[in-house]
Structure to design on (294 residues):
């Protein structure tokens, strides 16, 4: 039987389109420009304490000033419906950028009765933008921003006892890190039966290694587990621009080549088609962990 989250956008509304995506489309000062835009907005009084009004202001900047690499309204609605279904007590996002997803999904998770939302962002400047906007929206007591490489942050939250299980995880950071970070969560048993994953940009720009992993059977994963002596998370499967972005974001840091995850976890995975805020077709891969094979 179809569930609400299986619905997808049939046609893109051109009235909502963002400004064109340039060759250099982030970390060029536009994130700070966004802060100035928001805090000088004529509707600032109405924006205070309202995640919805703040999201509208962020969308306004991205449409009329400069492109922002946000999940956007169309794909965002898919994840909000998922949150309403799952009702996660603990939700984690990998990649926060300027806080659009933390505002949208954090607000939805709080309304659904959640206890904590973790936003993991490597870039300290972006994280500062997120924290400022969360404070403005009145979500800073619910959403906790963690600064640093995603794998390090996951490990630290686990070691300190702040993260014991992930009910829903949104992946939207550098694409080659999706699979190794998922495997790390599996090994720490943060992802177990009942956990749900929502991975952005699985069509544009695409993430073949991640899709292969979450769509593989236990037998296929076990076979690969036995055959491989090193990680298969090469950047070769990604477009040149995404490899460059990965190097720029991660630098010389390498994924843990010993990460094998938990190949015994059983996943059901499906692509929900939608659009990028610039109108290009994209999709969210929704993956549910339905058990563990012994």
């Amino acid at each position: 039987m179809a569930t609400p989250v299986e619905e997808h956008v049939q046609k893109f509304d051109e009235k909502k389109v963002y400004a064109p995506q340039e060759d250099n489309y982030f970390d060029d000062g536009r994130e700070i420009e966004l802060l100035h835009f928001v805090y000088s907005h004529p509707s600032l009084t109405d924006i205070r304490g309202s995640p919805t009004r703040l999201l509208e202001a962020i969308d306004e900047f991205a449409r009329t000033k400069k492109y922002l690499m946000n999940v956007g309204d169309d794909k965002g609605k898919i994840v909000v419906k998922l949150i309403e279904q799952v009702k996660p007590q603990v939700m984690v996002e990998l990649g926060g950028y300027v806080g659009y997803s933390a505002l949208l999904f954090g607000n939805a998770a709080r309304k659904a009765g959640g206890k904590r939302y973790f936003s993991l962002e490597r870039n300290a400047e972006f994280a500062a933008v997120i924290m400022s906007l969360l404070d403005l929206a009145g979500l800073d007591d619910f959403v906790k921003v963690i600064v640093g490489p995603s794998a390090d942050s996951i490990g630290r939250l686990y070691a300190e006892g702040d993260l014991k299980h992930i009910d829903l995880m949104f992946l939207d950071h550098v694409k080659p890190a999706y699979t190794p970070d998922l495997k790390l969560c599996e090994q720490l048993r943060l992802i177990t039966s009942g956990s749900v994953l929502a991975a952005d940009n699985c069509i544009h720009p695409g993430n073949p290694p991640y899709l292969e992993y979450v769509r593989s059977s236990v037998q296929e994963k076990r076979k690969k587990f036995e055959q491989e002596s090193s990680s298969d998370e090469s950047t070769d499967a990604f477009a040149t621009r995404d490899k460059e972005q990965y190097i720029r974001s991660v630098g010389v840091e390498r994924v843990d080549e010993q990460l094998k995850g938990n190949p015994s976890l059983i996943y059901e995975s499906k692509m929900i088609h939608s659009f990028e805020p610039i109108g290009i077709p994209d999709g969210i891969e929704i993956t549910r962990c339905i058990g563990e094979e012994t």
